């Protein structure tokens, strides 16, 4: 029954790929098949983390059904991306599905970019390490990320910035904290004996993200945090001080615990679990909090779907 339902859903999603380039729309009307993009996304561009995070599911659906149509749709996306020029070797977050050109040159390992990189690595792993194309794209991407986006702060914290309008913004989002686990997961099989290097890089990202939690009143991390001057790993703007039950930091602890068995990662995970229990549990479930630096938090009254799907898992 689940296979039947998966096929029914996929068939309803296929019209999203009916664009001049084959890069799918962000949204599709399931009744009419008409697709569209968000106006705010660099003048109606498609988003890297959206069209780049279909690959594993569509490949697997072709494997389950024997119907290659799904596989072909996502392989077309990959081939198109491989042919394109990338500024500094980095993938911009926006691609126009009408013209096939990049939108604004904004590159992020956090929101809008994140899961594209995760899926390159996992496509290689799911193929029993036979999808060498995916591994090469992953290796090339993280080399460019390390060269242009990863920096060490004055206080010695390694962070991943965002490339915006031709310069590096010294700010890291909670979403980008997943990359610590990704670097650790990708260490085995990396180029020229760099496995130790990537495991260490993953550990450094984990330490930075733990600091973002530790430097708050609630011991829960903010949505994003800066590395400007004296302030490090703390949110500056009120609009970035919320915690909405996100999984990325805990996910990185989990991967690093599995790969190193260093007890600090279990300790850090337990700290987060206790803080969620103490500050986020409400009568009807769990809620996000609006300011992690306030010892008397206000709840946002939302239990995000990813709290069950990812954070607790």
Automatic annotation (TrEMBL):
Entry keyword set: Disulfide bond, Glycosidase, Hydrolase
Top-level EC class as recorded in UniProt: hydrolase
Pfam families with a match to the protein in the record: Glyco_hydro_47
Cofactor(s) the protein needs: Ca(2+)
EC number: 3.2.1.-
Pathway linked to the protein: Protein modification; protein glycosylation
Protein family membership: Belongs to the glycosyl hydrolase 47 family.
The protein's name in its UniProt record: alpha-1,2-Mannosidase
Gene name for this UniProt entry: LOC103607903
């Amino acid at each position: 029954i689940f296979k039947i339902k998966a096929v029914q859903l996929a068939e309803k999603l296929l019209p999203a790929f009916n664009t001049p380039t084959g890069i799918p729309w962000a949204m599709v009307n399931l009744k009419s098949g008409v697709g569209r993009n968000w106006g705010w996304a660099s003048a109606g561009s498609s988003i890297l983390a959206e069209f780049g995070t279909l690959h594993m599911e569509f490949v697997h659906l072709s494997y389950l059904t024997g119907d290659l149509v799904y596989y072909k749709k996502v392989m077309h996306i990959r081939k198109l991306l491989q042919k394109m020029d990338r500024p500094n070797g980095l993938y911009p977050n926006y691609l126009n599905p009408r013209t096939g050109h990049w939108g604004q040159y904004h590159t992020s390992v956090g929101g809008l970019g994140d899961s594209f990189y995760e899926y390159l690595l996992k496509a290689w792993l799911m193929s029993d390490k036979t999808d060498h194309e995916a591994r090469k794209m992953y290796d090339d991407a993280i080399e460019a990320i390390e060269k242009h986006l990863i920096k060490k702060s004055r206080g010695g914290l390694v962070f991943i910035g965002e490339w915006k309008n031709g310069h590096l913004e010294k700010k890291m989002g909670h979403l980008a904290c997943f990359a610590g686990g990704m670097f650790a997961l990708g260490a085995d099989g990396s180029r020229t004996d760099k496995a130790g290097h990537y495991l260490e890089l993953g550990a450094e990202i984990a330490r930075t993200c733990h600091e973002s939690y530790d430097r708050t009143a609630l011991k829960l991390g903010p949505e994003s945090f800066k590395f400007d001057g004296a302030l490090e790993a703390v949110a500056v703007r009120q609009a970035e001080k919320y915690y909405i039950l996100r999984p990325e930091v805990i996910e990185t602890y989990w991967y690093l615990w599995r790969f190193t068995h260093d007890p600090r990662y279990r300790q850090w995970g337990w700290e987060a679990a206790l803080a969620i229990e103490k500050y986020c549990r409400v009568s009807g479930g769990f809620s996000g909090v609006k300011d992690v630096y306030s010892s008397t938090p206000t709840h946002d009254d939302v239990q995000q779907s990813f709290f069950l799907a990812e954070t607790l898992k």
